[in-house]
Amino acid sequence: MGVITQLLRGRGRKRRLPLPSPLGTVRAEARALHVRLGGRTVLDGVDLQVAAGEVLALVGPNGAGKSTLLAALARDLPAGSGEVRIDGEPAAAWTAAELAVRRAVLPQSAQLSFPFPVEEVVRMGRAPWAGTPAEDEDDAAVRAAMAAAEVTGFASRPFAALSGGERARVALARVLAQRTPLLLLDEPTAALDLRHQELVLRICRERAAAGDAVAVVLHDLGLAGAYADRVAVLHGGRIAAEGPPARVFEAESLSRVYAQPIEVIDHPRTGEPLVIPRRAVRDFAS
Ligand SMILES: Nc1ncnc2c1ncn2[C@@H]1O[C@H](COP(=O)(O)OP(=O)(O)O)[C@@H](O)[C@H]1O
Ligand SMILES: [Mg+2]
């Protein structure tokens, strides 16, 4: 099919809005995905799915390919070879407008800068719904997202005048306001204090409980262990391990992946795996 035909088709057919799907429906999927950037293989045969109703944590050392994988699942980055599917179709099948009501993407940290007050930044998340029946929910969606991310208090302040952590929460609120069935969050907790890290992961759980699919890049394996249904460990552009945290968080393999001795301890009260670097006993006497 030629480019012109594609454009005509895209215009000719009605924009397809996402439909509610039963829990477990795959919302995004990478199949044998290879991506090369700057002449280097960054993703080297990745198979991964994220489904309605689950929180999937992507973890792994710096440079493992987490952001690249998330961007590929969002179709923000083309697949080299292999395939990305969104809502059961090849990612390329969707128009930009259809994509924007299916998946919301929070890019890594404040590479983001907006010359607007906070509330307008959050309201930008509603743009994809213009001209659809969901437009009626705009005000409620913006209000709810700001309350969830605890940014209502600085609604009228300029985005650029906020602290790094405050900006991160506003950026998250924008993505929440978009109300898509697929959420792709790249290190949403990186700049946040302890309270707000917990808040963000609780929001992820709430969205999953409401039937959305959530993929979230995390460095804190404790957060992943406490909140994720499944964890995928990336290492050198491949999935080194994948499964429930209790199975994936295993000292020997994590130590290898992170090139750092690691201990995994069961939390005495909750039983969740606690992942901590193996440290020498401090000798206070000397
Ligand atoms: N545009 C690019 N050109 C060349 N190499 C890149 C580019 N973007 C990322 N990389 C490289 O790809 C690897 C994976 O990057 P990234 O997906 O950002 O890792 P992570 O998010 O796991 O830290 C890194 O080694 C990084 O240097
Ligand atoms: Mg990254």
Automatic annotation (TrEMBL):
The keyword Phosphoprotein is assigned to this record: no
Keywords: ATP-binding, Nucleotide-binding, Translocase, Transport
Superkingdom to which the source organism belongs: Bacteria
GO molecular function: ATP binding
Keyword Translocase attributed: yes
Residue ranges constituting the ABC transporter domain according to the UniProt record: 26-261
Pfam families per record: ABC_tran
Name listed for the protein in its UniProt record: Hemin import ATP-binding protein HmuV
